């Protein structure tokens, strides 16, 4: 079972930039960070609208003087306090991640940044170098990778249960933007604006999730890719609301990704299917407690979360928080990741390199990969769906 006993000397003093009232993802960060009492939420610049941010922050329990009008003031003022923040999560629109993460690292903070990490690959590489120089954690919030069955899939591939990987099928194809909802939704509006969203809408917004997860499960690196993208709602052009990508991986495996916001009727359709020489694995985020294990010539097995037959590589973090048969979900996945971030931050603070080498969490390398994938897809699609090198 999950170990809920306190493992740090003291909770990490934690702040947020973005994630203000009504935002899509702010609550998820707060709920996950505070779940195991490893982070204490003490300061923030929650909103572009300073007054609304202060009002919201105080209603979340922050002291009024620690609800700051913007991230620069947050970092400068907190640095002056003995009890200032030690880590910050960035949950703002895509184009702002780079400048805020850079300022946070320069201020000596550990950083948890939303995906896509940045718009440009060079910026993500620069952030990685800066985090190394500052000896700080730089994590990227690939929130679905905390699920126990995703770790089970990774361990099964590692142990050779399915044999060498041949095909990876990825999708994140929902139907929530099958009409022009951005007319009435601020959260959708910035996503259709290349200046804020970056050069892609749905590949960056959703495609990066199964792409990262597949890489995490298989360890395979992309060699080249080919992408076709469309804007079925014409006003979204040049940003796509639907895309298909073909991948060639190093070592000979191949793959596909379907990223879509116009898959009418679909909730998420976020699936990763890994086809090996002997067997296949399939995980679907709408049924996250199950993992399909299909051995050629045998009946399908549905592996269930919380059961003794699972490989449990890391019982401290990825283990079940409740016995099998009880549903765990999105918030448990996020809390598992924040738990991992807390242990990583603690190890950075103690300079425990051995721990960090063996401790997995979604770090900036995964963030860089996502940004590379998005940019390579745009290059391919905008040149007529041609094969392009990944690096
Ligand atoms: P949103 O538009 O719903 O909310 C953004 C919030 O950030 C708002 O409160 C806004 O006022 C605030 N904000 C914007 N610029 C700011 C700034 N410079 N300083 C302080 N606050 C600022 O957006 P969202 O849907 O919550 O997305 C935010 C980020 O999270 C995006 O990068 C998105 O890709 C990512 N996201 C990730 C997941 C995931 O599963 N990991 C899910 C949804 C969104």
UniProtKB/TrEMBL annotation:
Q: Does the keyword Oxidoreductase apply?
A: yes
Show where the Gfo/Idh/MocA-like oxidoreductase C-terminal domain sits: 154-388
| Gene Ontology terms, MF aspect | glucose-fructose oxidoreductase activity; nucleotide binding
Q: Sorted alphabetically, which InterPro entries does this protein's record hold?
A: Gfo/Idh/MocA-like_OxRdtase_C, Gfo/Idh/MocA-like_OxRdtase_N, Gfo/Idh/MocA_oxidoreduct, NAD(P)-bd_dom_sf
Q: Which residues form the Gfo/Idh/MocA-like oxidoreductase N-terminal domain?
A: 12-141
Protein keywords: Oxidoreductase
Its protein name is: Glucose--fructose oxidoreductase
Q: Which organism is it from?
A: Grimontia marina
Gene coding for it? gfo
């Amino acid at each position: 079972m999950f170990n809920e006993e306190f493992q740090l000397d003291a909770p990490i003093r934690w702040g947020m930039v973005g994630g203000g009232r009504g935002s899509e993802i702010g609550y998820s960060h707060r709920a996950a960070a505070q779940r195991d009492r490893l982070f204490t939420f003490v300061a923030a610049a929650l909103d572009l609208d300073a007054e609304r941010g202060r009002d919201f922050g105080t209603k979340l329990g922050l002291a009024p003087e620690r609800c700051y009008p913007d991230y620069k003031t947050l970092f400068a003022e907190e640095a002056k306090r003995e009890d200032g923040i030690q880590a910050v999560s960035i949950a703002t629109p895509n184009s702002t991640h780079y400048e805020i993460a850079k300022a946070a690292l320069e201020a000596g903070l550990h950083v948890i940044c939303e995906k896509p990490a940045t718009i440009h690959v060079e910026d993500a590489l620069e952030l990685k170098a800066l985090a190394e120089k500052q000896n700080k954690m730089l994590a990227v919030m690939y929130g679905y990778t905390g699920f126990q069955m995703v770790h089970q899939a990774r361990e099964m591939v590692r142990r050779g249960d399915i044999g060498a990987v041949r095909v990876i099928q990825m999708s994140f194809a929902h139907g929530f933007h099958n009409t022009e909802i951005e007319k009435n939704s601020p959260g959708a509006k910035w996503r259709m604006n290349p200046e804020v969203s970056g050069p892609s809408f749905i590949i960056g917004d959703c495609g990066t999730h199964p792409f990262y997860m597949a890489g995490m499960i298989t360890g395979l690196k992309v060699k080249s890719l080919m992408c076709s993208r469309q804007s079925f709602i014409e006003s979204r052009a040049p940003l796509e609301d639907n895309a298909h990508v073909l991948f060639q991986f190093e070592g000979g495996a191949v793959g596909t990704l379907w990223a879509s916001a116009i898959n009418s009727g679909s909730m998420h359709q976020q699936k990763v299917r890994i086809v090996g020489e002997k067997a296949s694995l399939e995980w679907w985020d709408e049924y996250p407690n199950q993992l399909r294990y299909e051995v050629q010539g045998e009946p399908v097995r549905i592996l269930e979360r919380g059961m003794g037959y699972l490989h449990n590589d890391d019982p401290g973090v990825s283990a079940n928080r409740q016995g099998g048969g009880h549903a765990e979900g999105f918030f448990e996945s996020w809390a598992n990741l924040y738990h991992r971030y807390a242990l990583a931050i603690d190890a950075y603070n103690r300079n425990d390199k051995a721990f960090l080498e063996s401790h997995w969490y979604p770090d900036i390398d995964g963030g860089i990969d996502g940004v590379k994938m998005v940019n390579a897809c745009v290059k391919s699609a905008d040149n007529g769906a041609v094969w392009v090198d990944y690096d």
